[in-house]
Specification:
The chain is α+β, with helices and mostly antiparallel strands. It has helices at residues 5-29, 35-59, 62-71, 79-85, 97-108, 152-173, 175-179, 182-196, 199-212, 247-252, 257-272, 308-322, 326-336, 345-359, 369-385, 392-411, 417-436, 439-448, 458-462, 466-509, 512-545; strands at residues 116-119, 125-126, 130-137, 142-148, 219-220, 233-237, 242-243, 276-279, 287-289, 295-297, 303-306. It folds into 3 domains: 5-88; 97-152 and 193-306, Transferase(Phosphotransferase), domain 1, CATH 1.10.510; 308-545, no CATH class. GO terms for molecular function: ATP binding; protein kinase activity.
Length: 549
């Protein structure tokens, strides 16, 4: 019954409508929030999460993929959702072993013992699209054998039809749906998840990442055995390890959680700060850690791609924020597809500059609840009124980023992204100067460099005459302040871009509470960006008066 197309579509669409109606009437009924209101809200979320999990396990397919995404959002998702959907990561009910092994034999065109001396009786992991068995080749090599689930191709394509109906309803009857390019989003989902159904495509993706990160000593990508792989079977090197978020395992083997988080952070930024493919499904079930602390990356079925042009546009947008060039910012947002064709560029540029000028008049030390609330409301108003959208290709980039942030915060709850980001920023600026020869990038890079390393003339300064030392000390502090402000602004606007992406993803999900939470994070990064810009401007005015410039 679950594989009958009309039944699957009816269950998925009905559940979506039911959830939307429940949330709508809840907010209609509860205008003010009290402790009792919060308890009822949690009860509603739990009820919806349980219903979703039960339907996902029953129907499998695309519902499990969405559930896996929700279960990895430890940074913003309510605990009730995380707890209910956690089992969807790698505990999907398995297909009977005899059916999966028949698929394996059919794909090989030979009996199992023609290639294997051993294969496990049951799968060691069962996911939404495939199951993994442990095996041993005739040459004694232990391998992981990934076999596509029975009838999964038909199931996924039926779910695509249900998704099209859901997006059509959202587009016709909700304000959020009208603001989003749902058609482009649908095509992107079909393209990326459709590629997951072709294991030969996944093999090629994995080989790409092997070549890209072959010289890394912090993370490892298993070898693939192309001669044993087909469209429905993928054979790769077996690696002994546990989930990277298995904290007891980390403690048992004395693995430093901060070091593990740093390694994984580097893997994420190596993909997301440069053009090329990126792992679009980096949840905790796809990232292992070995006893010696090596990070192992698995499952390259779902990948996205950042074009060279988009990567450059992102960098130029940040450059515009840092150099107070709002026209450049708006142009890059348009080039990236964040602005719809009818966007009024001049109005958006004026709005952005007006809000920045308005809030930078406030001293950062006087940042209070009222000011923050005002920033939140203004930002929300801009998003509602202006023709802003999240392009489909950035939805999956934002998805991968948010999943990665969730995993990192589980490994190291006190992770310092600013400290980890300093060397990344320096490398980023070096690369952009080399590629473009841009003078402004050269200015920023040279400004940031002293902040990222100790002064090399420290000993000479200590032995200089006192008057010269004081003069030099003043200049050094001026340079340090200038560099510090530039770096803070660069990082704050990078954070603003990412949090905006998270906000639009929460819109796509359609959960009002998630929208509020992600909007709050966006407001914080926005306010921080405004304050750093104000301090930098004030410093420049003082520096001009003292003839530093």
């Amino acid at each position: 019954m679950k594989n009958f197309p009309l039944y699957r579509i009816t269950v998925i669409v009905t559940m979506f409508l039911k959830f939307v109606i429940q949330l709508y009437f809840f907010h209609k009924k509860h205008k003010t929030w009290t402790t009792n209101t919060y308890d009822r809200w949690q009860a509603l979320l739990k009820k919806q999460a349980v219903e979703y999990r039960e339907n996902a396990i029953k129907l499998e397919g695309l519902m499990i993929k969405v559930g896996q995404f929700l279960s990895t959002r430890a940074d913003i998702m309510p605990d009730v959702f995380l707890n209910e959907l956690a089992d969807l990561i790698d505990k999907v009910p398995p297909v009977p072993s005899n059916i999966s092994k028949k698929i394996l034999e059919a794909e090989w065109g030979q009996s199992l013992d023609s290639h294997l001396s051993y294969i496990s009786d049951k799968p060691v992991a069962s996911a939404s699209i495939g199951e993994v068995y442990k095996g041993t080749l005739l040459n004694g090599q232990d391998v992981a054998i990934k076999i596509q689930r029975h009838n999964i191709y038909k199931i996924i394509h039926t779910d695509f039809k249900a998704l099209r109906i859901v997006l059509w309803i959202a587009r016709k009857f909700t304000n959020i749906g009208k603001e989003l390019d749902t058609e482009a989003l649908y095509k992107e989902v079909v393209s990326i998840i459709g590629d997951e159904l072709n294991y030969y495509k996944e093999l090629k993706n994995g080989q790409y990442f092997q070549r890209r990160f072959h010289d890394s000593t912090d993370y490892y990508i298993p070898q693939f055995y192309e001669e044993y792989s087909t469209g429905k079977v993928l054979v790769m090197e077996w690696i002994e390890g546990r989930k990277v978020t298995d904290i007891p395992f980390l403690h048992k083997h004395k693995i430093d959680r901060k070091v593990a988080a740093r390694k994984l952070f580097q893997f994420f930024v190596d993909q997301l700060f440069d053009y090329g493919m990126f792992h679009a499904d980096p949840h905790q079930g796809n990232i292992l850690i070995t006893q010696d602390g090596m990070i192992v990356i698995l499952d390259f079925g779902m990948v996205g791609e950042i074009s060279k042009e988009d990567a450059q546009h992102i960098r130029q947008m940040i450059q515009g924020f840092v150099l107070d060039d709002y026209n450049l910012v708006i142009n890059q947002l348009k080039e990236l597809g964040f602005l719809l064709p009818h966007a009024n560029k001049h109005k958006l540029q004026t709005l952005l500059k007006t809000y920045i000028d308005m809030y930078i008049e406030k001293d950062i030390h006087h940042l209070d609840e009222k000011l923050v609330e005002g920033i939140f409301q203004d930002l929300k108003q801009i998003v509602r009124e202006q023709p802003i959208q999240l392009p489909a290709e950035f939805a999956f980039l934002g998805r991968a980023t948010s999943i990665g942030l969730g995993v990192l915060t589980i490994i190291d709850p006190h992770i310092d992204f600013m400290a980890l980001g300093k060397p990344v920023v320096r490398e980023w600026l070096d690369k952009d100067e080399e590629r473009s020869g841009n003078i402004k990038w050269h200015f920023i890079k040279e400004s940031v460099k002293p902040l990222l390393s100790l002064p090399r003339n420290l000993n000479e300064w200590l032995h200089a005459p006192e008057s010269k030392r004081r003069s030099e000390e003043t200049r050094q502090f001026q340079r340090f302040d200038h560099h510090r402000y530039l770096l803070m602004m660069s990082l704050s606007y990078v954070s603003l871009l990412l949090t905006l992406a998270f906000y639009f993803i929460s819109i796509i999900i359609g959960n009002n509470q998630l929208q509020f939470i992600t909007l709050s994070f966006t407001g914080l990064t926005f306010s921080f960006s405004l304050m750093t810009t104000f301090l930098h401007r004030r410093w420049i005015n003082k520096a001009k008066q003292s003839h530093y410039f």
